[in-house]
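@channel sequence for tomorrow's demo:
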Amino acid sequence: MNNRDYVKWKPFNSVINVKELVTKGEKIEYPELSKDEISIYEEMLKESLYLKKDLLITYIKDGKKLKIRDYVIKLDPYKKNVVLKSTTINFRQIVNIKSA
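structure tokens (generated this afternoon):
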């Protein structure tokens, strides 16, 4: 007699990695910004730095799109980091910036 029960109920995870399949669909790629968008965002960040003006920044972290409302404390041109009051974001992570 064949023992088909063992083969029949083989875990699905051994055939396809379920975690990888689930997280693969959720990840968001980094945006390709045009030169115009980059210059507009840089001006908005500088304005926020000098005037302590709040911005609504949409960015990607760990494959998820997040929003934060904060103002800029420091701009690091070498590492391309934007240091906000509550966190630090790399400029390449930014999707959108709006005035708050």
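heads up for whoever presents: The CA atoms of residues 3 and 79 lie 60 Å apart.
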